[in-house]
Design brief:
Blueprint (H helix, E strand, L loop, with lengths): L1 H26 L1 H8 L5 H16 L3 H4 L8 H26 L2 H7 L3 H12 L6 H20 L6 H28 L5 H21 L3 H7 L3 H29 L2 H4 L2 H15 L6 H18 L2
Helix pairs in contact: 1-12, 1-14, 2-6, 2-12, 3-5, 3-10, 3-12, 5-9, 5-10, 6-14, 7-9, 8-15, 10-12, 14-15
Length: about 300
Amino acid sequence: MQQIKTSTSANQTQNWLLIIAITLIWGSSYILMKRGLEVFSPPQVAALRLLLTSLFVVPIFFRYLPTVPRAKLPYLALIAFVGNGMPPFLFTLAQQHIHNSSVVGILNSTTPLFTLLVGVLAFGVHFSWRRLLGILIGLCGAIFLIWQNSHHSDANNQYEYGILVIIATFFYSLSANIVKKHGQQIHPIAINVTAFSILAIPSAVVLFSTDFLLRVQTNPQSWRALGFLLILAVLGTAVANMLFYRLTQRTDAVFASITTYLMPLVAIAWGFADGESITWTYWLSMAIILLGVYLTQRQ
């Protein structure tokens, strides 16, 4: 009995270590996108992120391809386009107009709500009023924090383009449920490398159909921006996705999506470092969000 308790405790510790790692990486992605958008257009930043990630994982694609059941390839293609392909374009377009990277991170915290709703409606996930209450409390904290940003002069743009982030979170939630339902027995690395190998050619076509090469040649800040996007691709996409797939397999899609509640903390910290002012209301919002996290994951 003691051995079972120790094993359960160790698993919970590993789950939370995964959440912390994913949170730190993904929470930093918004400031990296912001730096990329200083030189490149939203489609270029998104396509670069996907292409660089694809180049990073393609060398190990053929090693893991034999481990993927052929019947699962259509689901991995769906994960590729829904969970990896479309959200970067929505995020970069939204962030170009919102300008505040922390707001984008906060809006992303709607993912757990959509994950639960999609899971219940389409994937047979067990419904829990306590879980839903926790998610709604967390969302209230996020909404309160978003409201604080409504005092900026570009507030209308924030709400108008914020819907793009909401759509992206819906795609994330759909992908997370597909991973849990159809990717449970597939190695997380295999899921990741297959998904991004599928996206390699489409992202290259999008990128080189723009004036990307001209910007690289004429803008002296282009290589600096490319460096930030390389970090975003390798850590913020390739590595973080593998960790997230592993977390989803170990727990469930809703618990794994809790990372999006914690990401605003990192995004706000980067915003503060970038010159954004942080008031007491930010900390109050964080406390409400963390309360929602606790209720959502409590056994």
